[in-house]
Amino acid sequence: DLLVVGSANADLVICVERRPGAGETVLGSDLALHPGGKGANQAVAAARLGARTALLARVGDDAHGRLLLDSQRAAGVDTAGVLVGGAPTGVALITVDPSGDNSIVVSPGANGRLTPDDIRAAPAAALLTASRVVSAQLEIPLETVTEVVRGLRPGARFVLNPSPPRELPPDVLAACDPLIVNEHEARVLLGADVGGTAVGGTPEEWAGALLALGPRSVVVTLGEDGALVADASGTARVPAVKVNAVDTTGAGDAFTAALAWRLGAGESLADSAAYAARVGAVAVTRQGAQASFPTADEVAAG
Ligand code: ADP
């Protein structure tokens, strides 16, 4: 069973001709409201593929929280671990200009109130001891992720997408199997390691440098160029799947969810990543995040 620990946000999207400057008001499109946040997205992506999935998160006691709970339940996610209250549901205020560029303001809200105490208490503790694969991101407090690592059941597999990226404590890094990063996240993690300077080199070199930070394995996602997996036994490219991309939002979440699910089913890292690349490729051919995530049948057909 897969447990996703992470964020749940309401994404409020308005298309604008141009972004407002200080003190300025611009008119935009009708508001679009979507369930989002990396944790919520991963849980929906995994459940839609057919994985038995639970989400451990915190939302507010408000309409956005209910929207998120509804979308999880509609996808078949076990929501017993979604805590309610303490702060408003997390929100991402997103403006999109005609060239497709985003400007985003995030209010973490309830995501910032998912505490280490929440992880030690019921129902989270029971979910953690029951889960053989646990997937997390960094849109919740780092101390909470650290507590998740401490609470893993023996032999459980921990998958981390460190997004938004920041320096990680050694015990969290050591638990990652794999650490999943895109190019930006790789640069930040490695830049922090070498005194803030940007890192050059090939993805193979980044993977090697990331492995030296302590995780048991590393996956570097490379957008339309596929991905790369690395562990003590070596490094391998995961070929890109050629598609006509229309919206890459949520591709990384779909990839991570699919990878965690296949690892839990006993597949190798390379095979799991190859499957995850097919899932990510379908997701980019459709608009939206959660709305773009495929079923296993759709992956097989695509
Ligand atoms: P993130 O969304 O975190 O930046 P990526 O853009 O690397 O992550 O996408 C995650 C995965 O989704 C990639 O490794 C790849 O397998 C798949 N993917 C993303 N963009 C495309 C694309 N344009 N064509 C095919 N596959 C893609």
From TrEMBL:
Binding site for K(+): D247, T249, A283, R286, G288, S292
Regulation: Activated by a monovalent cation that binds near, but not in, the active site. The most likely occupant of the site in vivo is potassium. Ion binding induces a conformational change that may alter substrate affinity.
Chief site of localization: cytoplasm
Record GO terms (molecular function): ATP binding; metal ion binding; ribokinase activity
Gene Ontology terms: cellular component: cytosol
Compartments (UniProt record): Cytoplasm
InterPro entries: Carboh/pur_kinase_PfkB_CS, PfkB_dom, Ribo/fructo_kinase, Ribokinase, Ribokinase-like
Top-level taxonomic group: Bacteria
Domain Carbohydrate kinase PfkB: 1-295
GO annotation, biological process: D-ribose catabolic process
Residues involved in substrate binding: N9, A10, D11, G37, K38, G39, A40, N41, E139, D253
Pfam families in the cross-refs: PfkB (PF00294)
E.C. designation(s): 2.7.1.15
Positions bound to ATP: N182, T221, L222, G223, E224, D225, G226, G252, D253
Function, in words: Catalyzes the phosphorylation of ribose at O-5 in a reaction requiring ATP and magnesium. The resulting D-ribose-5-phosphate can then be used either for sythesis of nucleotides, histidine, and tryptophan, or as a component of the pentose phosphate pathway.
Subunit structure: Homodimer.
Name of the protein in its database record: Ribokinase
Organism annotation: Streptomyces aurantiacus
Gene: rbsK
